[in-house]
Amino acid sequence: MNKGVYIALLSIGLAQGLKIPIHYAKEKELRPELFFQTGGMPSSHSAGVSSLTTFIALQRGVPTVDFALSLVYGLIVMYDAQGIRRQTGELTLKVNSLGELVDKINADDTVEFKEEKPKKLKEMLGHQPQEVIGGAILGVITGTIGYYLTKKR
Predict the structure, then answer these.
(1) pLDDT of amino acid 91
(2) pLDDT for 11-22, tens place per residue?
(3) How far is CA 102 from the centre of its chain?
(4) For residues 81 and 85, what is the distance between their CA atoms, to the nearest angstrom?
(5) Who's near 133: CB < 8 A, 6+ residues apart?
(6) What pLDDT does residue 39 have?
(7) Are 11 and 53 a contacting pair, CB within 8 Å?
(8) DSSP state for residue 110 in the 8-state scheme
(9) For every residue of 36-95, which 3-state class applies, written as one string?
(10) pTM score, two decimals?
(11) Which of 101, 102, 96, 103 is nearest to 113 (CA)?
């Protein structure tokens, strides 16, 4: 494998690992399983594509086809992470609520429906814009450090 792939995979792993202490700092709850879940701060998708794009820019140059492909691909991935995947996560919450409502109707309980905000991380498939930006910043830093550490002298 080439250095760009190693750096991108390292950036993804670093982003996933950072989700645990960031969540702990915000919620005072230790959840090691966040390493294997989607969503949350920072976006590992953004970190991976940003680190690869940064590495390519520094190694090959901005006017190359390699950089252009990586940049466009990265922008699509980041847009998808905060747009379509996030909407899918919110739709999942609504479907889960409807399932609970149907169960209440079938049990002849009093029916009360309320719209819920996303609470459970496992239902969050995508990212808030700030999570995507956080991942992108992490990726640029990782890609830059990776380039200078692996640069032939």
Answers:
(1) 72
(2) 999 999 999 998
(3) 32
(4) 5
(5) 46
(6) 77
(7) no
(8) P
(9) HCCCCCCCHHHHHHHHHHHHHHHHHCCCCHHHHHHHHHHHHHHHHHHCHHHHHHHHHHHH
(10) 0.73
(11) 101
